[in-house]
Amino acid sequence: MTQNRKIILKQRPQGEPKVSDFELVEEALPELKEDEVLLKVEHLSIDAFIRTMLDARDDSLHGSMEVGKEPVMALGIGRVVQSRSDALNQGDAVFGPMGAQTHVIWPAGMLRKLEESEEIPARSYLGVIGMTTGLTAYAGMLNCGKVQEGDTVVVSAAAGAVGSVACQLAKIAGGRVIGIAGGPDKCKFLKEEIGCDEAVDYKAGDVNGQLKALCPDGINVFFDNVGGDILDAALDNLAQFARVVICGAISQYNDMEHVTGPRLYLRIPERNASMIGFTVDKHAEQFPKMEADIAGWIKSGQLKLPEQIEEGIDNFPEAIVKLMTGGHKGKLLLAP
Ligand SMILES: NC(=O)c1ccc[n+]([C@@H]2O[C@H](COP(=O)([O-])OP(=O)(O)OC[C@H]3O[C@@H](n4cnc5c(N)ncnc54)[C@H](OP(=O)(O)O)[C@@H]3O)[C@@H](O)[C@H]2O)c1
C-alpha cells in the first residue's frame, strides 16, 4: 500500500497567505481500480490561480477549495508507477491535476501522456511550453497583443513565469521590450538573461515617470500581469492605437472583495486604444500550433525559461508565499 503525503488548506488566508494556513497530512492510498494509474508526482506548478482558489467565493474563476479536505489544487507532472490501463505504462510521464501531494491515483483518461526529450524535459510542460505559462504568454502576447515589428512593448511581473516568456515572444516578434519587476536583481535578470531592452524597478517608485523616460513615443502593447497602480502608470503612457492585454492582476488576488479598478481608463478612448482580456483555455484549438512554435524557438535558442525548483512537499505552503511575494525568478516549481 502506498503512503501519500498531501498539503491541505487548514484555514482560509486573510490577505497574504501564510505557511500556517496549510497542513501536511499522511494517508494510505487504496488499491487501483480498472483503468486507473498510480502516479509519483515529480513536479508541481506553483501558479497564481492557486491563491484565488483559497478564498470562499462563488464567482471565483477557477472555483473555491474546501477547507480541511482535498489536497490543494496544483497542476503537475507525474510518473506512472503502477498501471491498470492499456493507455499508460509504468515509467510514462503525464501532465494533469496532480494536487499538492507526493502520489495520486487517477483514471488514465484524465491525463496527457508527454513526449520527453533532452531539450524539452517533462517539466517544461509546466513552464516554457506549459498551459499556465508558455501558452498563456503566447495567447496574450501574440494572439491578443498582435505585436508588430518595431512596437514598444511593456510587460509587468516580467521576471516571473508568464512574464519572462511574454518578453521573449515580444522580442521574437520584433518588439522593443521593457520589463517591469521588483528590485535591481530582477531588473538585471531581465536585461541579461531574458533579453529585455530595458527594465523598470517598480519598487524604486515613480513607475509612470520611468515609463515616460523609456517610452518617449508611447507604449504600443502593454501585457499586464499585475493590475492596480502599475496598470494605471502604463495606461498614462499609451501610444495611439495601443493594445492593452489583461493577462492577470496579481496585486489584487489577496483581497478580491476590494479590487482596485484602473483610474486612468479614459486613456483608452483618448488614445484610440483597445483593452482585451483572455483566459488561455479559450485558445485551446490553437495549442498544437502554439506548442510547435514554442518547441521550434526553444530548439533555435530564441526562447528559454529559467526555473527555480523548491524541494519537498512540506515546502509547498512556503512556495505559495514565495510566488505571491516575488521570491523567485522565472518559473517556480516544486519537486515533492
Ligand atoms: N489569463 C490566463 O489565462 C492566465 C493563465 C496563467 C496565469 N495568468 C496570470 O499571469 C500572471 C503571472 O502568473 P505566474 O504564475 O507566471 O506568476 P509569476 O509571474 O511567476 O509570479 C508572480 C509575480 O508577481 C509579482 N508580484 C506579486 N505581487 C505584486 C504586486 N503587488 N505588484 C507588482 N508585482 C507583484 C512578483 O514579482 P516581483 O518580484 O517583480 O514583484 C511575482 O514574482 C498572474 O497574474 C496570473 O494570474 C493568467
Describe this structure in words.
It is a single chain. This protein is of the alpha/beta class and 336 residues long. It folds into two domains: 3-127 and 306-335, Quinone Oxidoreductase, Chain A, domain 1 (Alpha-Beta Complex), CATH 3.90.180.10; 131-281, 3-Layer(aba) Sandwich (Rossmann fold). The protein has nine helices and 15 strands. It has helices spanning 48-53, 131-144, 161-172, 184-194, 207-214, 228-235, 267-270, 287-299, 316-325, and strands spanning 3-9, 22-28, 36-45, 76-83, 93-96, 103-107, 112-113, 152-155, 176-181, 198-201, 219-224, 238-246, 274-277, 307-311, 331-335. The strands form three sheets. Strands 3, 4, 5, 6, 7, 14 and 15 form a seven-stranded mixed beta sheet that branches. Helix 2 (131-144) packs parallel to helix 3 (161-172), helix 2 (131-144) crosses helix 8 (287-299) and helix 5 (207-214) runs parallel beside helix 6 (228-235). The longest helix is centred in the middle third of the chain and has 14 residues, at 131-144. The protein binds NADP nicotinamide-adenine-dinucleotide phosphate. NADP nicotinamide-adenine-dinucleotide phosphate is lined by residues 47-49, 132-133, 136, 157, 159-163, 181-182, 186, 202, 225-226, 230, 247-251, 278-280, 323-324, 326, 328, 332.
Quickly list its features:
336 residues, alpha/beta, Quinone Oxidoreductase, Chain A, domain 1, Rossmann fold, 2 domains, seven-stranded mixed β-sheet, 26% strand, globular, binds NADP nicotinamide-adenine-dinucleotide phosphate
